[in-house]
Amino acid sequence: MKPPGEGSARIAEFLETIYHRFNDRRYVPPDPLMFVHRYHRPEDREVVALIASSLAVGRVEAIAGCVERVLGWLGPNPAQCLLNAGEFHIRRWTAGFRYRFFDARQMGGLLAGLQRVLRRYGSLEACMEWACREKGEDMAQALDLFAATLGRQGEQHGAGRLLPLPRRGSACKRLHLFLRWMVRWDNVDPGGWNCLRPDQLQIPLDTHMFRIGRCLGFTCRKQADGRAAREITQGFARLVPTDPVRYDFALTRLGMRHGVGLETQLKDWSSGGSQGGDA
């Protein structure tokens, strides 16, 4: 990995340029984050955020259609609706549900897990706070406990692939996307949680951010797994120690508009060869 130096300063300058251009509410749609912004009550926002992030697989248009369908079951007050729902409501809502590799059983498991946590802890944040107390400063273990508590259905992991467990070694991009939305507060991320700090967050690692991380020398991993996510997060933390996921949204938006050219721009800036082009 590259130590901080002149190249890092140039990269930080480039990333700040990208951040100030693209970290804007106007660029949120069609990102599933747009659903979170529809709600104003914290208890609804966290429920919607977990549902939307858990379904964030595939084309954004397909994700939006699926999230819209699920939220339609829950009405204008999703948290209260879940608290009041009976088992038969959840079975009726999820009957015939399928999206990508998620089926009715897994979606029902997620909704039942949300209901159980809300009834026991009062909120998802309170559940996360409990998990952090149980596991101390080990965020990976705390997040694993949080996801396992949400996904548990008897002795089974009822939510299945909708709630991956960090202990299994994956990057758990969707769980970390959920945390980014709930913990950070700026023009894009709505925040609302106080139980975690931005410096405790991990990059929601997808193939795009994995390519960027490798381009910047933050990781040499061949796969976008949990270890790669931690290494790339550490790389960004050397640039912004208090907020290592600061550039996640902006880089994703830039990637949608400039494609693979982003990697070339990053390399140019790190070597001093470019002044950012039209970014």
Describe this structure as you would to a colleague:
The protein is built from 14 helices and four strands. It has 279 residues and is an all-alpha fold. The chain has one domain. α1 packs across α13 (248-258), α1 (6-22) crosses α14 and α3 packs antiparallel against α10 (173-183). InterPro entries: CHP02757, DNA_glycosylase. Pfam families: DUF2400 (PF09674). It comes from Desulfacinum hydrothermale DSM 13146. GO terms for molecular function: catalytic activity.
Our count of helices gives 14
Q: Supply Rg.
A: 19 Å
Shape, principal axes of CA atoms:
globular
Overall mean pLDDT score? 90
Q: Uncertain runs with pLDDT below 50, 5 residues or more?
A: 274-279
**Intertermini distance:** 26 Å
Give the H and E element order: HHHHHHEEHHHEEHHHHH
Largest sheet: 2 strands, antiparallel
Structural domain tally: 1
- Sheet/helix structural class: mainly alpha
Oligomer: single chain
InterPro entries: CHP02757, DNA_glycosylase
GO molecular function, one term: catalytic activity
Organism: Desulfacinum hydrothermale DSM 13146
Pfam family, one: DUF2400
Short description:
This protein is 58% helix and 3% strand. It is built from 14 helices and four strands.
